[in-house]
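tool_log.txt
---
The assistant was asked to compare two proteins side by side. It first ran the structure predictor on the initial sequence, then on the second. Raw inputs and outputs are pasted verbatim so the downstream comparison step can read them without reformatting.
(1)
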Amino acid sequence: MAPGTRNHPTREGSSGSNQNDNPDHLVAAATQFFQSMVSGQFMAPRAPQAGCTLEQFSRQHPPTFDGRLNSMDVESWIERMEQIFEVLYCTDDQKVKYATYHLTDMANKWWKSTWALVQLELGEVVPISWEHFKKIFLDHFFPRTLQESRARQFMDLTQGSMTVAQYATTFMVLSRFAIYLIPDEEKKAEKFERGLDRRIRERVRTLRIRSFTELVTRATIAEEDLQENIEYNNQRKR
């Protein structure tokens, strides 16, 4: 019989015997393992259960929307709502109910009148989906004409009197309305570079930067250098 089996003779009183060779120990370990499985200690994590309560939703401090025509507020409101929905695994029906619960003033009045028309169109047994709500919401509060206006603003955007940081922020906000103008990172950097202040543009152009993030960093450094030179020259004139 192969060495190491329990029938293999061992020297009496040997201090080198392994505790794991003891059948009682193995049985105890196996029993503990299966008990752990039954209690759920080693069970695979369950998939998150769909659905969330209004209380859970409210704990995330969702913003309200009053209906005033500010395109940035409209998009920000939708984006924030969808962030919360995703984290809490809200159902489609809950998304519409909780979102419309946070409409106030003009927006609330609009929804009360619109809801009846939409429900009449769909039928009472068909709930309004989140995608359907989002479409009619954006069509009303962020119409295509306004989106096209933002796209034109992006096309004509230059740094002007803004700092590089302010220009970059405005660039990112407006770029969402004209993605077709900057289909990749290189085009995005080129568009940003063209709009920079001439003095800053001359300093970064030779670097041939094709990363938007790196270009913003380099442009900010160039701006700081220019400002230091201006301050230095002003001090010399005094």
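(2)
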Amino acid sequence: MEEKLFEQVYKIEKNKLLRYYERIKNQFTHSEPIQIVAKFLVNQAIG
């Protein structure tokens, strides 16, 4: 599946997700990258 088609099918706002990830990364500067990604994914599942 092409990236653009995937984004359209699932209504993904790529820029919005990237900004949100950057905010989480800045809040948890002392965390390992895997912990930051886990926090991001958990928040996406809840939100």
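---
observation on (2): The chain has a mean pLDDT of 82. The chain is about 75% helix and 0% strand.
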